[in-house]
Design goal:
The structure is a single chain. The protein is of the alpha/beta class. Strand 1, helix 1 and strand 2 (49-57) form a beta-alpha-beta unit. It contains 16 helices and 19 strands. Strands 11-12-17-16-15-18 form a 6-stranded antiparallel beta barrel, surrounded by 4 helices. Strands 2-1-3-4-5 form a 5-stranded parallel beta sheet, sandwiched between helices.
Amino acid sequence: MSQVHTSYPLKVGLFGIGLDTYWPQFAGLEDRLKGYVAQVAARLKRPGVEVVNLGLVDSPEKALDAGHRFRQADVDLIFLYVTTYALSSTVLPVVQRAGVPVVILNLQPEAAIDYAAFNALGNRTAMTGDWLAFCSACPVPEIANVLTRAGLAVHQVTGVLQGDPHVWNEIEGWIEAAQVKHVMAHNRLGLMGRPYNGMLDIYSDPTLQAITFGTHLQMVELDELAQLRQGVTEAEAAERVTLFQTEFDLQPDCDPAELTRAARTSVALDRFVDRHRLGSLAYYAESVPGHDNEDVMTSIILGCSLLTARGIPVAGEYEIKNAQAMKIMDAFGAGGSFTEYYALDFADDVVLMGHDGPGHTRIAEGKTKVRPLEVFHGKVGRGLSVEMSVQHGPVTLLSVVESGSRLKLLVAEGESVPGPLLEIGNTNSRYRFAPGARAFVEAWNAQGPAHHCAVGVGHLAGRLQKLGALLGIDVVSVC
């Protein structure tokens, strides 16, 4: 999981709801329910997350105050713990005033009432008080009705307070999704160069990216990167070559002069990213033969791979949408490597996918190889490139799809599987999908994505659905 902005930590709000009329009627009920809220608050605490716990809200007046307090606290997400029956008027003012997504926690204290012990209490007042502690499901339809009529999204987690893995997996998923949304909203995406000529599907509206994700898009200059490169010393370049030897599997046919050329660009890239405080980068340029800018562009792959591996994903061909997809996957801790279809292996029913340019070496199967290429196909020049396959096991593909004036997330879960690969000096992997290769590509293509996507390790469809819900955009899972 990528770290959230250090100056603005993720803030998660929590409040429980009850009905003040009950407290004088049923001795001990209020304290019992407050104890349940405290248990949830303790479970929400984790590094990088600040929990704002307002305790039990049991009247419309307290609800209005809670809404103001959450707004003042700048919370990103609120968990509403329904402890017993409560009026919807104790919820609506909180949610409206806070103005952030709310997840309803419909959690009983135990899996079932102990009917024999309950009926043996003898005192019907005591029995009712005990029953009300299990009554969390009762007001949820009322709350959902009012929120829906107010045009507010309804998100729910239903289960048992303790000993229910489903509940805490769901809560963890909402927190992770909130963290990723927070990362995207505080990210600075650098845009350097221009799109690849004629590749119409990758052209994107930068303003729509800023509106949807909150990302700041910073225009940066290739000339500046080239100038920084001129200032890299021989000692700094030699030190970076040593790092290459540690991070990569340098093949014997790599020219030492090419390694030094890539090292100078890598050092300059780090300075460039630090200067502009970039959390991701989309780039493409061709320049003209013999120009410093061409020298930079033909030696950029190793440095961009190192940046991607340390949480600053770099997308080639000026693919803004895919830089965003890669950042999302990286923020979930899944990697996020640039990829596209290569071919279909109908004999083994797998899809071959990869791309030229940078790769995410932290999710590679084994050590990433560096190979010299006499030509960068479809691009200018020659130089060093990386060859890697994504770790074998579960993977998720993600595409940020632009359709008209809206974005959506397109998701597929599959497996990275062993088998023969193309030793062409590019990233490439074999992926198997449950519907089969033929049905998968047709279902994916039917959603209108650009031909690039991001691949990360693990199955993340559920987390990405939650992210879409928090962002207010559609999420389509094809498998």
